[in-house]
Amino acid sequence: MGRFRSLTARRVGQRRRGVSTFGLVLLVVGVATLLVSYFLPGWVARLWPLLVVALGVLGLVRRPDFVTELEALVPGLANAADRQRRRFSLGLVVLGLILLVFTSRLVDDRIAGPAVIIALGLALLWRRYR
Predict the structure, then answer these.
(1) Which of 3, 36, 56, 106 is the least buried, fewest Cβ under 10 Å from its Cβ?
(2) C-alpha dihedral over 86, 92, 93, 95, to 10 degrees?
(3) Cβ(69)–Cβ(82) under 8 Å?
């Protein structure tokens, strides 16, 4: 029949070391959710997404000093860095508003799952035909 390969996994390339950013974000979000759910008064539990919206708006309005310094070092690089900062800040605003809608109970919990699936489908169709 031939030779069988070993079932042990072989590592290709260097193993990445250090702190996982995504893991750290998930940890912070999980702890924040627990704090909001169990230890804060009711009005704080409903309005905490306003903090996320405020961070996004602050990111949209304020231009960091390092972006201006990048323009002096490499012309054109600051626009790329500024564009990514604006996209991230706008994403924070949208995420905060979505969380605010769900925490203030403006949307029934039974339609949240199907609404997310419909929104993802519409986004994929929009991207395809854009």
Answers:
(1) 3
(2) 140
(3) no
